[in-house]
Amino acid sequence: MNIPSDLKYTKDHEWIKVDGDTITVGITDFAQSELGDIVYVEVETVDETLDAEEVFGTVEAVKTVSDLFLPVSGEIIEFNEILEDEPEKVNADPYGDGWMIKVKCSDLSQLDDLLSAEDYKTLIGA
User: Residue 98, Cα to own-chain centre: how many angstroms?
Assistant: First the structure.
């Protein structure tokens, strides 16, 4: 199970990479393995400002559809358009080419509420 130590995590299995006030969000290796083969990623919230914990999109696997929750409040400024044609990138490279959105974070203090890699490992029993 790949859980990079330089990222933050949520209890909903999203990962967060911080770059100033811009954060990149995707789903974890654990989440993609639980979902199985991902066939579609839908994000229709680009240019919208959402609160933390609001649904920003969905990920569809062969057997299920899961909501994607925004880990921090902010404006969604970019969607990884590669996923429109190649949603399987989320399975193959969840922390690289399989990233989902970029968000301009409106409250960086919310990052303190996220899980460290160690905390996330405990959550999933790794």
Answer: 9
